[in-house]
Design brief:
Layout lengths: L2 H16 L6 H4 L3 H11 L7 E5 L7 H6 L3 E6 L2 H11 L8 E5 L12 E7 L7 H11 E12 L4 H9 L13 H10 E9 L15 H15 L3 H4 L4 E9 L1 H18 L1
Parallel strand pairs: 1-2, 1-4, 2-3, 4-5
Antiparallel strand pairs: 5-7, 6-7
Length: 266
C-alpha cells in the first residue's frame, strides 16, 4: 500500500468514526437537486443490473439503488465506512442485493466486464485518476456506463475556503480541473458534463429559514442561465459526469488480436 493510499485510508477512517466533516453539512444542504439529478440518471433500467459504487458509508447511494432492484457492490478504502454500510444493510429487506467490501478503487478485485454501471459521489478526486479509470473500464461491460458526482477545482473563492480549512479534507485530494475532464475522453467516447452550484451557494445562510426554498429556487434558475456560458461552467462547485462508449476496450481488443496473429506466425 502506497503512502498516499494509507493517508486516504487513515483520513476516511477518522472521518467516518468521528464525523470530522460535519462543519461542511451546511454547504451540502443545497445539493438536493444534484443528488436528485444523479439518482434520476442512475434509476434508469436498474432491475437486475450489477452496479459498483465507489465510496460507501451512511450516505451511500447503494441502498437507493438496491431498493430499485439493482445488485449493488459497494467498496471503500475505509474499514469504518464499510462497517457502517454493513450495519445499515442488515436492517433492509432487500439486503440480499447489497454487497460491501473494503477495497482500493485503483486495484479492483472484480472480473473483467462484470458491471453494467459504476457510480460514485465525490470519490474520483481522491484517486489517481488514470489508474482508477483503467480499472473502471476493465470491470465495466462494453455497453455499460458510469455516473459520478465530483467537485471542480477552479473557483477561486471555493479554493480559498479549501485552503483555510485543510483539516476538513485529505492531504491528497484534488478537485477536478479542465485537464482531468479531458482525461475522461481518452477512455469514453461519450462524456456528458452537467454543472451545478454557483450562485446557489448564496442560499446557504438561509438554509434554516422559511425563505430558503424560494431563494434556492431563484438561484437555481440563475445557475441554469449562467451555465450556458463556458466561463461560468468552469467555476461551478459540482458536476455530474455521464460516461459511456468505452474507447480503450477497442484498443485492448486490437492488441490482443495482434498478439494472437504474431504468436501464430512464430
Amino acid at each position: 500500500m502506497t503512502d498516499r493510499i494509507q493517508r486516504e485510508k487513515d483520513f476516511h477512517n477518522q472521518r467516518f468514526a468521528e464525523n470530522t466533516r460535519k462543519p461542511l453539512d451546511k454547504y451540502y444542504s443545497i445539493t438536493s437537486n444534484t443528488r436528485r439529478f444523479f439518482l434520476d440518471l442512475m434509476n434508469n433500467e436498474l432491475q437486475g443490473k450489477k452496479v459498483l459504487e465507489y465510496g460507501c458509508g451512511k450516505g451511500s447511494f447503494s441502498f437507493d439503488l438496491a431498493e430499485k432492484g439493482a445488485v449493488v457492490y459497494g467498496i471503500d478504502i475505509s474499514e469504518v465506512a464499510i462497517e457502517e454500510a454493513k450495519k445499515i444493510s442488515a436492517t433492509k429487506n432487500f439486503k440480499e442485493n447489497l454487497n460491501f467490501s473494503v477495497m482500493n478503487a485503483e486495484d479492483l478485485k472484480f472480473e473483467n466486464d462484470f458491471f453494467d454501471r459504476v457510480c460514485g459521489n465525490s470519490i474520483l478526486h481522491h484517486l489517481d485518476l488514470r489508474a482508477s479509470l483503467k480499472e473502471l473500464t476493465r470491470v465495466l461491460k462494453r455497453e455499460g456506463n458510469a455516473i459520478f458526482i465530483e467537485p471542480l477545482g477552479h473557483n477561486p473563492i471555493i479554493n480559498l475556503y479549501r485552503k483555510l480549512t485543510p483539516k476538513l479534507r485529505s492531504e491528497d485530494e484534488h478537485p477536478l480541473k479542465s485537464e482531468d475532464l479531458k482525461l475522461f475522453k481518452e477512455y469514453f467516447s461519450e462524456v456528458n458534463i452537467n454543472y451545478f452550484h454557483l450562485t446557489t451557494l448564496l442560499a446557504v445562510p438561509f438554509r434554516n429559514t422559511t425563505l430558503f426554498d424560494k431563494i434556492f429556487s431563484i438561484l437555481s434558475k440563475t445557475d441554469l442561465a449562467l451555465f450556458k456560458f463556458e466561463i461560468f461552467k468552469k467555476n461551478a462547485w459540482m458536476i455530474v459526469l455521464e460516461l459511456s462508449g468505452l474507447k480503450n476496450r477497442l484498443i485492448f481488443a486490437g492488441i490482443i488480436n495482434l498478439e494472437i496473429v504474431c504468436n501464430s506466425l512464430i
